[in-house]
Input
Amino acid sequence: MSDINEIMKKASAIKLVVFDVDGVLTNGEIVYAGNNLEIKVFHAHDGQGMKLLKQGGCEVAILSSRSSSVVAIRMQELGIEHVFQGQTDKRTCLLELQKKLKVEQANTAYVGDDLVDLPAMRVSGLAVAVANAHQTVCQHADWVTTRPGGNGAVREVCDLILTAQGKLDALQNAYLQ
Output
């Protein structure tokens, strides 16, 4: 892990933030309720953080190895355009997105929690693990959140990046008018 000054320096350069879903946007539990109905719980603060990132000029993307209609619905609600589900090769998918958006690896943050996320983390300028991530993922992350996935970790990442870029106060102050 890097020290906070190095993390803030990396975060200040971010233009694209990519989030895993299960274990990052959710607590990692996968719940089925008969008739193939899948239930996921998302934290409202995380959604607001992603909206703030977009308002602050960052591209936001979702990159998941699983596929879920619930994820598609939630991302549509949040206005997230770049949603990639069923991706067994997250590294290649991320590299293709970086190329499409003309965003360098140094300007990309990736937030993950398990081994499948490591290849994408390694082609990102800021690799983040949520607090409840697998220990190997934490060891290879630049920064580990204090909050667990599904419980505000995404908002913590969003706030860190927006703070490093000097945008968080202005975005929050818009709600105080």
Remarks:
- Residues 4-176 form a domain with the Rossmann fold fold (CATH 3.40.50.1000).
- The chain has one domain: 4-176.
- The two ends are 39 Å apart (CA to CA).
